[in-house]
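Batch manifest, entry 17 of 40.
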Amino acid sequence: MDAAARLTLDKQAALVDTNGDGKAQVGERIDYAFVVTNTGSVTVTDPTIADDRLAGAGIAVTCPTGPLAPGDQVTCTASYVVTQVDVTAGSVVNTATATGKTPGGDNVSSPPDVATVPSGEVPGAIPPKPTQPPVLRPEDQVPPSDDLSSTGVSVALTILGGLAALVLGLLALFVGRSRRER
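Output type: structure tokens
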């Protein structure tokens, strides 16, 4: 490797925080910027980024093509969509390294840089509904009562009782008249 070839990497993560709570939730996006700087004294070509989380998700990092002269920098980019695994972990952490080619064809790499984005459940989220009906415990059941007014049964019984009394009264009237007529 050329002794004067050196790269540095500044990995930056910007959460596209749709609810503004400062934490990554499922479906939110993290935009990454990888600023690669040639801190050496020779031109480096073909800068690329190796990022453990993005590679594992099948996401390619896009870098400008062309040589990187001493003191110059390029910005590579990628975006990542947060998963439930990230939320459960409490943060999205990933490590990246920049690599390029020296004039002699050797690889030169930057020290790794880590970016961490806090993640968490949506505040005030409604918990998922249970898949089974709740089990009623004895203390959850309504104790029996002689007062049926809260059930509406007492009103129905009153009406039925009144109708029964009316029918019996009419029946008694009818029977009494038919006996007198004989």
